[in-house]
Amino acid sequence: MKSHTVRTYKSAEHLPREDQLAWKIAEVAADDVPLDTDVVEMIGNRIIDNAAVAAASVARRPVVSARGQAEAHPFAPGATVFGLPADRRVSPEWAAWANGVAVRELDFHDTFLAADYSHPGDNIPAILAVAQHTGLSGAALTRGIAVGYEIQVDLVKGICLHEHKIDHIAHLGPSAAAGIGAALGLPTETIFQAVQQALHVTTTTRQSRKGEISSWKAYAPAFAGKMAIEAVDRVMRGEGAPSPAWEGEDGFIAYLLSGPKAEYTVPLPEKGEAKRAIMDTYTKEHSAEYQSQALIDLARRMGPKIGDLSKIKSIVIHTSHHTHYVIGTGANDPQKMDPKASRETLDHSIMYIFAVALEDGGWNHEKSYAPERANRPETVALWRKISTTEDPEWTRRYHSHDANEKAFGGKVVVTLDDGSTVTDELAIADAHPFGARPFARPDYVKKFRTLAEGVVSAAEQDRFLATVERLVELRPEELYGLNFVAEAGRLGDAPRTGIFDWKR
User: Which listed residue, of 17, 279, 438, 501, carries a Cα 20 to 30 Å from 359's Cα?
Assistant: First the structure.
């Protein structure tokens, strides 16, 4: 890996294209290097993972709405949509939209955390939709996905967005554009312009993850994928982009990040170097914000030690800056303590999550968020005894570049009514690559079968999994098999109509 310094340049200064971050990203995307076997295996795992969470969400209102919008844009050859038959295809940007929402709705797929946050699996819907529509092979698709992961992870390592309240899809738009360009085998110049366009149109605020969190949290990454496809299409037609997008005098760093005097360091593979960033990422065993994964595991471990939960006086979670200020009491969001809060808000309340995990000894993607569950009096009472505090050591470990000490958990101190305490800590989730039970292909398959139960027939599950097993060997027409078909009656209520399907 080579580290690249990125800073603002005045318009009067000449910054050659080859020195711009977007060009360097484009060079990485255009560098067709063979993929390592374990990388290909992991790409297959994440395709399965995305399908698993999409199966569990196909009947949920935001997904139904997004799918309804997509179905209003039929197209040939087009791309497939989760749940629909393979011959019902839509325009690729709308397939990316619908599938991106299905993947993101339950906050249950892969994650990477460093200087910023990300769900790199959000790259897959857009790259797959373009690959299906344009008739690419499984090998080309895999190459594109590897690039999407590489660029997003490298940007997340080097550039912090959240401290300036910029949503993390600002890293996803450029990575998806780079991945699409790599899959299509586009030249560096084209990818360069597409990456800049994608950055420009996918920069939004973090209010989507603050206060009364709505379904837009699920829509935001899908929007980035859709915009990436449109950006690549425009550039292929000869259009350009705001440039230099990151380094410009009125650009991203100067006015949306740390200002004209700031410098960032972004690592990128050198020419000929394998793209392995996907191996730094990790999926979720539990349907909740990633910083809650280890704490859910810790709650189910601590429950038997505590015994009678009604005897708890207080619970303090000592954890990282991010956990405290984003999903903890440091956020100062009263909604995070409200039993009537939305599922999306409860997903970002470690106080609620830890209380339920303590009581239930685990977590369920549906039951744990049910309104009757959130309003249970004893749960509310326990929930309001929980607070978080930032511990500098947990913050340091969160940002550590040493994979062996990087941590996303915390220490929990439970004080009982009699003054005694129960204390335990867990640095990483059990399913993390360095955890007690690292996820491997059988775990991804189990997750898919569990979440697809009652939604996708056993035969269709088998067909989908068998298709993934042959990923790099797939012929163009076989890429349509990388989405599943739902059983009749499992796609939820008919969506409300909107502009696209307006009837006169």
Answer: 438
